[in-house]
Amino acid sequence: MQIKYNDSTKQYIIGETKLTNDELINLIRMGTLPNILLKEESFIIKQKNNDYENESENIVYDLISNIVGRNIVYFGAPGTGKSFKVTQFIKETYPEYDGNNHENIFRVTIYPDYSYYNFIGSIMPIMKDGNIIYDFKPGVFTLALLKALAKPNEHIFLVIEEMSRGNVAAIFGDIFQLLDRKDNGYSEYAIDNELLATYLSNELSKTINKLFLPSNLSIIGTVNTNDQNVNVIDTAFKRRFEFEYVPVEPIKDSNNKSLNSFEFKLDNNSFEWCTLYMALNLFITTTLNLNEDKQIGQFFIKFGSDEKNNIDLIKNKLLHYLWEDIQNSVIHSKNSIFKSSIRSFSALYKEFELKKNIFSDEFLEHYKSFVIENSELNEN
Fold first, then answer.
1. What is the arithmetic mean of pLDDT over 299-316?
2. To 5 degrees, how large is the angle CA 112–CA 113–CA 119?
């Protein structure tokens, strides 16, 4: 479907209907262009340069249906690969993306003091022509929105890591209203924000009166369910995102081998990481009767090729977590992950350094049973 443009009157023509630029953009944003788009599709406008320069009414725009922005949050225990899931989702659009810099992907990590002014932007003093002036400095959301409006035929991603570590409702502020999307990916409702609209208008060299999320901007977040220093994400905010649970089960490669595998020994007992962390999770939730948010994921520790460094990672990350966050949560329980002779963290640390067994007989039996069960499952 084509839209005609009359250069002399500066109007867009659809059949018998004549629209100004702002009227057309408003109809597009509201998804009310009759008989042009399927309800479930979004679209962009792509300019064609001087293809019809000899015609009295130049047809300079085509509608293309291809991008529908989404709001998604990946949540789960620490180390389950939430950031990995984000990267895999983005790679569906940009196969070359490896988690590093990409001009269409914006990433930010939330922390307790992170605010609306970090996220959206604020008036800041800057040096210009030798003078100090006050100007708007955009935050990551504004930069992502600007890129999406400037490149309507390209998918833009805003990735927000650790969303629950800050007051996310305050961080989004009035932008929260834009998170309601129609089927075509555009915001259901637009808002007035003069400061932001002025900045976008200046950068794009066209008038932006109302703020909205375009269909080519996706907002992807992650939430760690085990973080003890979190802010509650309220129901109203959750309703505007798809919450996708990332399970603790190990991720495998194309040869059905678990990623991030590592083997080590304590006394005469051998342990494989992917089996160990899953056995620990089962022990934590069944024997110790703790909530599943106390579990850990496959990438809780990221192993490399240096064996000594890998052992140090287990000693410095896993042992501390199991002692402080798990065992101390069930201090009066008769069940324990560790040997009863280990009465302090320093003793635990020392035993592990000497490569002595640190686990209780109860857990060792649990681990061995888990190994057997999984071996039988894999054989079947």
1. 96
2. 105
Say if residues 285 and 330 touch (Cβ distance below 8 Å): no
Beta strands in 162-262 (DSSP E): 217-224, 242-245
Question: Which of these, 310, 295, 299, lies nearest to 264 by C-alpha position?
Answer: 310
Residue type present at position 361: D
Longest Cα pair distance anywhere in the chain, in angstroms?
92
The answer to whether 77 and 54 are in contact (CB under 8 A) is: no
* CA angle in degrees (0–180, nearest 5) for 280-285-291: 120
Q: What is the mean pLDDT of the chain?
A: 84
Helix axes 194-204, 140-150, angle to 10 degrees: 40
Percentage, residues of the chain above pLDDT 90: 58
Q: What is the Cα 329 distance to its own chain's centre? A: 30
Q: Give 125-169 pLDDT, tens digit per residue.
A: 877 788 888 888 999 999 999 999 998 889 999 999 999 899 999
The reply to whether 268 and 365 lie within a common domain is yes
Is the same domain home to 82 and 208?
Answer: yes
pTM over 0.85: no
Reading the block at residue 207, the tokens are: 């008038």
User: Could you give phi then psi for residue 78, rounded to 5 degrees?
Assistant: -65, 135
CATH number of the CATH domain containing 200: 3.40.50.300
